[in-house]
Amino acid sequence: MGSGEERTPELRTLQQKVEYMVEKTFPGQKVSGRVFADLVKDRGGSLSHSYFSNILAGKVTQPSEDILKALGLGFGVDWRFFKEESEVVDDVVAGLQFLAKRRTGEISGLAGRGVDADGLPPELLQFALSLLEDARGRQGAGSGDSAHGEPEK
To answer: CB–CB of 58/15 below 8 Å?
Structure first.
């Protein structure tokens, strides 16, 4: 893996998933339980600040579906990400990696034909990320090409 490539973290427990989402959703910020609970409330959900703090502390491991839905609202992701054995973890991680690369300028634009209101499917995001990594790998291989794929003169 290159130095700029992000390794997919191990996200098995609820605590690991919530810590990951805090880090990715609020980079460089300390988010209190109260701030997060207010965010959830603003988005139409309900979650107490102490319950959120207990999740971060690892004291809550199997919350109700309503709590998982509140977490999804607060972080702006599919609530099923927080379920045990979630099938959407990889999709959410790929989407966040894509957004991070967009923010840093590694990906400047992407157009999709036939994209619906849900946006790009996770498979397309993974494919776009793999193309970016392949291009970076070819660039770093010393092929004699410039940064834009044009031969040096």
So the answer is: yes
